[in-house]
Amino acid sequence: MNILQCGSEALLVDVDGIDAVLGLYAALSDRLPEGVTELVPAARTLLVCFDPAVIPAQELADLLAGTEPVPAEAVRGELVEIPVYYDGADLAEVGEHTGLGEHGVVELHTAAEYTVAFSGFAPGFGYLTGLDRQLHLPRRAIPRTHVPAGAVAIAGEFTGVYPRSSPGGWQLIGRTEVPLWDPARRPPALLRPGTRVRFRETR
Amino acid sequence: MIEVVRPGPLTTVQDLGRPGLAALGVGRSGAADRRSAALANRLVGNFDGAAVLETTFGGLVLRFRQVARVAVTGAPCPIRRNGRGEAMNAPFTVWPGTELALGTPSTGLRTYLAVRGGIGVEKILESRSTDLLAGLGPSPLREGDVLPVGHDMCGPLPAVEVAPVPDPAGFGLIVRVVSGPRDDWFGPEALRILSTATYEVTSESNRVGARLAGPPLPRSRGGELLSEGMVPGAIQVPPSGQPLVFLADHPVTGGYPVIGVVLTDDLPVMAQARPGQSVSFRLVPGSLRRHAANVPGAAAV
Q1: Which residues does chain A have within 8 Å of residue B26's beta carbon, measured at their own beta carbons?
Q2: Which CATH class is domain B2-147?
């Protein structure tokens, strides 16, 4: 664990990987240390924002260094099942690239259980880990200017669902009608760091 | 109720934003120059969290349908109440039918207008702020919009005639920076360049960030950084080497290395930097033990 200063009101904790990030996030978010205002998990880091009037940076750094991450197998968030119409604009191409065919892509994508590693890009957009290696593909060379809300997509080691229409460069393999983001809901995001996800094919 | 006669180039509703939701992909947002927004609220006896109007480069014209106590702070601009001049940083009363017009600021970029009780638009996720990047909160003001006045006052009207605050500087700005978290992605030259060069704020700047032009900051390693959490004031350096300082509506995570972060106390200065204005950075020691020695010339603690 490497703790880096990030201005006067944040520390960036650099760890080994997503399991370590989620473990530390789970350990801290369970009972937020006094003075901590925000936790932002990412692929290999946890950003910890704090109020220096409540806790000095060094004291927080010592506290973080002494925090025992929750073991990966114990970080088990709620399981969400998402029904998907596998008719994405890139499905045929993904099937060809991987040599799996459209049907094979759907089979692999629905077989795995995913975990939301972190959010970003847009409110409610979760980066889901657990994607089968055979489906690891680069982003599209030229991003689309318009990806519809509910689009189910893959890129690199991640899969995810676009919570609203936006530009985007991921490979679109399907779509869902489940609302990913609703400001009136508490919490507003369906997918939060630690949430487990399964995709089910629907027609 | 307040009617928007003309919104100017960009006027948004802002309060203290949406802290605590970044893990869901929602940034904090809120007033870009929090100090000026807080002063405006205090001058009319509002809570700190009351919503104000943030107008960029002036040009805002309002018509009041009710009596209201208002205060204008931040970038100093001519204030016309039915054609008669009013002062910045000084609360005054407007009567029903009054037209209030803000001209172009002489220095700075963002002017704040508070109304006693606050702007009473609907809250989204506990905040009335417009987050232009995330697309949350009320749309930027349009001609003909009608804004309700809220009830976010915290006591009687304060007996203040004028608050003695300096205007945003009209010349070269200096802001303090703590190096890191990714200064190790840059050559030893980069921190020296950052702390000695002068950068110009470009017209590409907005509430997301201030884009700067000047000597490029050379990277010492290739490859891509995995996306990580970002903070307001983060100086992100894309492959071009031209830095960008994140402001209120910054993305929650970003994939370019951050060479340093502007101190929170100096963010209001950065938020008032207008295109064409020059900015220079002063490195100051961080508060972590290991970090205190990273600044050239700083005493080891």
Answers
A1: 123, 188
A2: mainly beta
Please answer whether residues A49 and A38 qualify as being in contact, where contact means their C-beta atoms are separated by less than 8 angstroms.
yes
CA distance, residue B239 to nearest chain A CA (Å): 18
* CATH code 2.40.100.10 for B173-291: yes
ipTM beyond 0.90? yes
Distance from CA of B178 to the nearest CA of A (A): 5
Q: B226: nearest CA in chain A?
A: A43
As a whole number of angstroms, the distance between CA A69 and CA A75 comes to 10
With tokens 């009335």, the residue in question is: B128
In our burial notation (b when 16+ CB lie closer than 10 A, e otherwise), range B34-71 reads bbbbbbbbbbbbbbebbbbbbbbbbbbbbbbeeebbbb
Q: Do A40 and B263 touch (CB under 8 A)?
A: no
Phi, then psi, of B94 in degrees rounded to 5: -120, 145
Which residues in A lie closer than 8 A to residue B262 (C-beta atoms)? 7
Q: Where are the domains of chain B?
A: 2-147, 173-291
Q: In terms of CA atoms, which chain A residue is nearest residue B126?
A: A183
Q: Which domains does chain A have, with CATH numbers?
A: 2-74 (3.30.1360.40), 79-201 (2.40.100.10)
Chain mean position to CA A13? 18
Neighbours of B26 (CB within 10 A): 27
Instruction: Outline where A147-187 has alpha helix (H).
Output: none
Contacts of B270 in chain A (CB under 8 A): none
* Contacting residues of B for A183, CB less than 8 Å apart: 124-125, 136
pLDDT in tens for each of the 301 residues of chain B?
999 999 999 999 999 999 999 999 999 999 999 999 999 999 999 999 999 999 999 999 999 999 999 999 999 999 999 999 999 999 999 999 999 999 999 999 999 999 999 999 999 999 999 999 999 999 999 999 999 999 999 988 988 888 989 999 988 999 999 999 999 999 889 999 999 999 999 999 999 999 999 999 999 988 888 889 999 999 999 989 999 999 999 999 998 999 999 999 999 999 999 999 999 999 999 988 865 545 554 433 3
- In this complex, how many residue pairs, one in chain A and one in chain B, have their CB atoms less than 8 Å apart? 133
**Contact state of B227 with A41 under an 8 Å Cβ cutoff:** no
- Whether A7 sits inside 8 A of B251 (CB atoms) is no
- CA of A160 to nearest chain B CA: how many angstroms apart? 13
Best residue of A1, A2, A3, A6 to probe chain B, by most B CBs closer than 10 Å = A6
Helix (H) or strand (E) holding B267: helix B267-271
- Cβ atoms within 10 A of the Cβ of B138, count? 19
Closest CA to B102 of B6, B33, B167, B166: B6
B2-147 and B173-291 agree in CATH topology = no
CB atoms A57 and B287 under 8 Å: yes
CA distance B79 to B60: 10
